[in-house]
């Protein structure tokens, strides 16, 4: 029967390290038994009462126990955590709700397999700014702008520490440079009755953009028939709708929209794609004989190749 | 407080506001282009941090949208008058050193100076509409910039153009943003 009276703790070791564990206060030549996660460890790993683990790997993480030979008293216990020191973290800062503030998010390029602790500092000129952290596990925090339109750069430093090491990264940026709205929302595309070459597209400002009146967004619309790879683009400096007037009749289209502050920052990601097919005339109800001849001629024409003009031909009108 | 608004005054203000917003937007784009050309031609580092240069109005503002309409106009006007003097100084220095070699930069500087002057006049018009007295030039005109070394002139120029680029965005937004209703002079873009 195994009795516990020992010192126990967590022991962190680097992948590839050689690890020696003593059995608490037991002498080198004392008779002992070592277990790992409940399994007895082979004598070949012992040097006297010391446990020797060479070139440890991740799989050797676990609970290690050492018992005194005859009385089975537990003399030593440790939780071995094998891992790596942190690499330079990847940090990104962005304002998708300008002019309210911006957020920074980060991640480690490779896992460390042991707990990591992040500390972020945001300095604007000489002023330290508070970065409100999201609850774990989200590696993100939010900063409110105290001043607007400032030419003084922001400096964000992220330090990551774990039991095996420490690393950091720094970002310096201008207030305007990190402005990037979220994609437009509620994108809808509809055929226009009696107009075989038109599609009506509408969308909304991203709900995260707090003041579109004072900080108007401009938009970029891209569309193409599914049968082609080449996108057509049109930039719209205001308004949240557009009518495509040069669609191929009867062809299904894929449409996306992006947004940008009218002056500063960068374009959002593309919105969710929507599909639509321009209006087509209902086939007429004919007598049987006429129908047969009609259908044969219609079926051959509907698979005609699209017109040969290049989409981006200088002469072709993009939108109207 | 401003005289009660006649419909024509309100329409005139809205017209001036929307034209002002467009002018600020155009100025912003031209200043950004000029800034790129200036950095390249002067051999400067685009990411260099430039300490606040004396006499250059800072665009940074706290609670930017809580100022009354008149406060905004007065602050904007003081800034663009200062930029007018600073750009004129830059243009003069430019011509002294480079002669025709950098005529392009000189022309771009002159074009921006023109826009800044036009925008300052625009702000004065808006203030008149608010029945506000226009502050005299000597009241808040900047002191003549001190004589600087060539490199200091370049850095000051960089600081001037950067602040002006940010001011243009600020002006656009402040002309577009209705000011708080309580006790404020009629907002810039409020409906009558």
From TrEMBL, chain B:
Belongs to the CNTF family. CNTF is a survival factor for various neuronal cell types. Seems to prevent the degeneration of motor axons after axotomy. It comes from the Eukaryota. Residues 176-192 have a biased composition (Low complexity). The keyword Nuclease does not apply. This is Ciliary neurotrophic factor. One of its GO terms (cellular component) is cytoplasm. It comes from Catharus ustulatus (Russet-backed thrush). GO terms for biological process: astrocyte activation; ciliary neurotrophic factor-mediated signaling pathway; negative regulation of neuron apoptotic process; positive regulation of axon regeneration. Residues 133-152, 172-192 are annotated as: Disordered. GO terms for molecular function: ciliary neurotrophic factor receptor binding; cytokine activity; growth factor activity. Keywords: Cytoplasm, Developmental protein, Differentiation, Growth factor, Neurogenesis. InterPro entries: 4_helix_cytokine-like_core, Ciliary_neurotrophic_fac_CNTF. Its main location: cytoplasm. It is found in: Cytoplasm. The keyword Cytoplasm applies.
